[in-house]
Amino acid sequence: MNEPTRSRRIGRPPRAENQRERILHEAAMLFARSGFDASSLNDLAEGAGISKAGIYHYFKTKQDVYDAIIIQTLQGLYDHVGAAVAAVTEPPEQLLAFMTAHAEFFERNYWAFRCMLISFSGMTAPDSRHEAVILRERYERMLRDILAVGIEQGAFRANDPAGTGRAILSLLNWMARWFHPGGPQTAIAVARDYADLLFHGLRA
Amino acid sequence: MNEPTRSRRIGRPPRAENQRERILHEAAMLFARSGFDASSLNDLAEGAGISKAGIYHYFKTKQDVYDAIIIQTLQGLYDHVGAAVAAVTEPPEQLLAFMTAHAEFFERNYWAFRCMLISFSGMTAPDSRHEAVILRERYERMLRDILAVGIEQGAFRANDPAGTGRAILSLLNWMARWFHPGGPQTAIAVARDYADLLFHGLRA
User: Does the predicted interface ipTM exceed a cut of 0.90?
Assistant: First the structure.
């Protein structure tokens, strides 16, 4: 397969992959709720229902688990949002697709986002840090490109795509702070409201 | 005085107040940089250049110091932004004043905001928690009222003031994550750009 990060998400993963996923999912909940420092690999083993040796099979340290959550989330986000954006052609549709797909992925990966955006402990492995920066830049570039093409084609008012992109990501990222899955609105509905406000503005 | 929280900020505070302020300022930097759990009252005493007994004169525990930072910041924010809003009359001017005054107060109290919005440890004293909730609600109500009056007067398009208020606070609050004082733009300039985008929208 040419796209390992995407193929991993399609269909039924092999059993070993399920176990690694389960560890990462449990760790994201644990770190987000108790904080990285206050969480131990013993807590993680207990929560995931896996022996500590089972965890060591996949990860050498607690930090490695944390780093894997962040890298996997950023990769998955890019793949999911990129596919939604590629499915439409006009910049306004693409921007709406970007915002709603981001919100959808966030809601599905709620604990990993809480872990990444709220309970941030920082990454220690230089390789992971470097990879995370590259993934984040690639993602932000996708958004800036939609804005830049929209300005060029006359669909959007002249604006600074970097500043506008930052505003859009602020709206979406702050959701990790207040949004709870299962509440009155879905994350996608919130993103639609934000897109409406952003597209048409507040002035009557 | 009828308004102790405001009068405390006017003119030159007495010397003792300076010492309490110095402890809070130093603690905000310490908690924001090292995290609440990893910071000790010894670190704080050393950083503030005050004996540990001097700190105990004002605060019983590390948690009390944290709670005082949050309460003081929320009070100061309300006072500062409220004064800016009260100085103008039309809802669009008031909204711009709200956003720029918020950004100004954030830049001046950068470490307290980082402490409050990023390195959040949660409050343990029920009284402080209750007070913080009331202060936060009062602040959000000021914003929603500006929006509601603007809609009523026809200055703003019909929208849900609660959702729009949340969008505005998302833009402003996420600044604690990426903005650094002394960078290429002031926080006020960022808030003005956000207000322009919000008022006029992205569509050409």
Answer: no
